[in-house]
Amino acid sequence: MQKPEPQPQPEKSLPEGVRHIVAVGAGKGGVGKSTVAVNLAVALAGAGLQAGLLDADVYGPNLPQMLGVQNHVPKLGDDGKIEPAEAHGVRLMSMGFLLEPDSPVIWRGPLLHGAMNQFLRDVRWGGLDVLVVDLPPGTGDVQLSVAQSVPLAGAVIVTTPQSIALSDVMKAAAMFRKLEVPIFGVVENMGDFVCPHCRKSSRVFAHGAGRSFAQKYGVPLLGEIPLDPAVCSAGEDGKPLCLAHPESASAKALRGLARAVAARLDAATAKRQGG
Question: For residue range 122-148, what is the model confidence (pLDDT) as tens digits?
Fold first, then answer.
């Protein structure tokens, strides 16, 4: 039987006005991926970049609450573009703006693909230096749709310190490599526990999964973020940690992550202009 000829893939292009797109992913849920994505966007905005945030986790869209804009109602402009919310210097679009509270999203692949394309192409992002995309956990339809629709400058992978998390983060890394997305590096979240009273740190979990992954894959360890109760309370209050507790060890680690990502975007820009 003769094999069918491979079909040419449509050329990927950036959304209007967006210079770079960075994906934040994880092999499984519960590792603090959305917290990292929110604080990365806010820290990039604080460093002077025009930053946007796309909540691509359609099954658990928590970013509106984490940025304190859960009551935003998207409107259409005269050109048919959707107006994003804006908070803390970051423009945000999320499925959470379009759903009733506690309503589940029960969609198959084609519907997810259509939603991602609409959020990427039909939102008035304006002139953004970087759009941070908070992906769902795992390696499913949304990740594939985003990577096949737009050129991603790179991906940040979030893990926890335990060695048991390694198999999941390896799967996420393998997915990005198969999709030819550069891996900027890994972030180890929920490291040493920071006591909210005395501010001393102590080790709760085993550690080293992020460093082991970085060494195995030959990518940078972009940051080790302590386990700090302030991280959770800041997200629930709608004011990300980088703004609520800027001098905390976790906020400093997240700003370090932002500097590392910004440096890689500068390098990508220089390479593109040089080529």
Answer: 999 999 999 999 999 988 899 999 999
58 in Cβ contact with 115 (< 8 Å): yes
For the chain, what is the domain count?
1
- Indicate whether 5 belongs to any domain: no
- Number of Cβ atoms within 10 Å of the Cβ of 114: 12
| Per-residue pLDDT, 4 | 44
CA–CA separation, 56 and 145 (whole Å): 10
Name the one residue in this structure whose structure tokens are 């959470």: 96
Mode of pairing for the β-strands spanning 154-159 and 21-25: parallel
The verdict on residue 244 lying in a domain is yes
Q: 138, 97 in Cβ contact below 8 A?
A: no
DSSP string, 165-196: GHHHHHHHHHHHHHTT--EEEEEE-S-SEEPT
CATH number at residue 146: 3.40.50.300
Half-sphere exposure of residue 85, counting CA atoms within 13 Å on the CB side? Answer: 24
Using a cut of 0.70, tell me whether the model's pTM lies above it.
Answer: yes
Cα separation, 52 vs 24, whole angstroms: 13
Given a cut of 60, is residue 11 above it in pLDDT?
yes
Domain that holds residue 40: 33-274
Domain contains 1: no
CB 221 within 8 A of CB 185: yes
